[in-house]
Each structure stands twice: as C-alpha cells, then as structure tokens.
Design goal:
The protein has about 180 residues and is mainly alpha-helical. The chain is built from five helices and two strands. Helix 2 packs across helix 3, helix 2 crosses helix 5 and helix 3 runs antiparallel to helix 5. The N and C termini lie far apart (about 55 Å).
Length: about 180
Amino acid sequence: MPVSSKRTPSSDPNRALRAVTVANPFYSPAHDGDVSNPRTIPAIINIRESAVTMLASRGRIDAAQLAAATRFRALWEAMCRSTRAIDYGREPVDGGGRADPIGHRQMQAAEELRRIRPLLGDKGYWLVSRICGEGYSLGEIVGSGSSKRAKLRAARELREYLDLLCEFWKLSTRR
C-alpha cells in the first residue's frame, strides 16, 4: 500500500485558491446590525490571477498598495479595453449623429493615467503598467533566465512605485 506524501504536488489546481473576507457588495447601511446584512462576507479567490494578488496573498504588499494597484488596473482597463471602432456603414437612426467611440469614462481614465506618468517616470510607469495593468508576472518582466535577486529588485521597485501612487491618491501607507 503506497504511503501518502505530506507534500501536495505543485500542479494541484486547488492550491491556487484561498479563502478571504471581502466587503459585501449587497451591504445596506439602512439595515445595519441585521444578521442577513453583514458588512463582510467570505469569498474564494485565485491567487494566481495576477502578480498583484500573489504578492498580496503572501504579505509582500500591504492593503494600501493593493488598493493602489487595483485602482491603476481599473483605470488601465477602462482606457485600453473599452475602445471600439466607428462603424461608418451603420445608418444613423432618427437623425442622430454617429456615436463617439471614446466615452467619458475612457477619457477620464486616460487623463488620470496621464497625471500619474510624470510621477512614476518612464521606468516606473512601464513596470506598473506591465504588472498591474497587463497582468505580467515578475518572472516575465525580468526575463526567464534572470536571478532571484532580479525578481526581488523588481518587487521592491514595484512596492516603491505603489507607495508613490498611495501618496498621490491619498491612500494610507505603512509609513
């Protein structure tokens, strides 16, 4: 009879799932104190979803840095992923004009990112946009044959840039 190992294999798909407590999206302050209306609820997250969630789950970044990274990601996705092309073959209905492919939310996100860029500099903006915006891992950023020291340096620089964003957006920091 084979003896079961205490170590789980690294290819276990359930290993990337972790239980966390998050804010209840259906919470209503009008019914505060009611048992059916909790402020927080338990949830399961995939820590391999992005490098930021991996760093947060391991305690490498604090809650303010996670909030800054999440806010940057929301701005990045609003600016980059919601673009659409103008369909010139489509007939305008009831005398209306053609729809603008760039919405107000997208323009506001672009303006916010435009204000962030000088704060972070070219290198910092590149690093934060790759990791927080596009979802690259630290290993992909520094290269596949790089040393552990290069990954640690990239993680340290990411934390420093996230601290700058925390100060810019007036989020609480560790300092």
